[in-house]
Amino acid sequence: xxxxxxxxxxxxxxxxxxxxxxxxxxxxxxxxxxxxxxxxxxxxxxxxxxxxxxxxxxxxxxxxxxxxxxxxxxxxxxxxxxxxxxxxxxxxxxxxxxxxxxxxxxxxxxxxxxxxxxxxxxxxxxxxxxxxxxxxxxxxxxxxxxxxxxxxxxxxxxxxxxxx
Length: 164
Prior knowledge:
Largest sheet: 4 strands, antiparallel
Shape: globular
CATH superfamily: Anti-proliferative protein, N-terminal domain
Strand content: 5-15%
Strand order of the largest sheet: 1-2-3-4
Order of helices and strands: HHHEHHEEEHH
Radius of gyration: 18 Å
Helix content: 40-55%
CATH architecture: Alpha-Beta Complex
């Protein structure tokens, strides 16, 4: 892996893959060797899937594309990795939450279990040269829009009035 897009998404990807692997381990019935292989396959699949969709300067860009989702349908990346160790989709549905959303963005990996669950951050790192504009930019990722859209039906904006 050289420099350029996707060069430094290893931490985010390994965090996400380790999380899904932990969920599988917690469910039981999958051997350690299988889990290790699953994790490696998932990391490889994610790396391949994200390599042209990773924008550290605009972390929210491509967020939907990188979002890993199980919602009565198995996420293809998880399905692919599970297939490598002989786990069927049916078995995966028994082992993993039926509704899981995992956001893998530059500088932040977070997840939600259930459609109305709270969002938990697995990994967060400060952005290099974190200017205020960038911080604001990253705050309007799909998570925030989801949260804002759901939690506050009446949007209240602080208006600045300039009196002459």
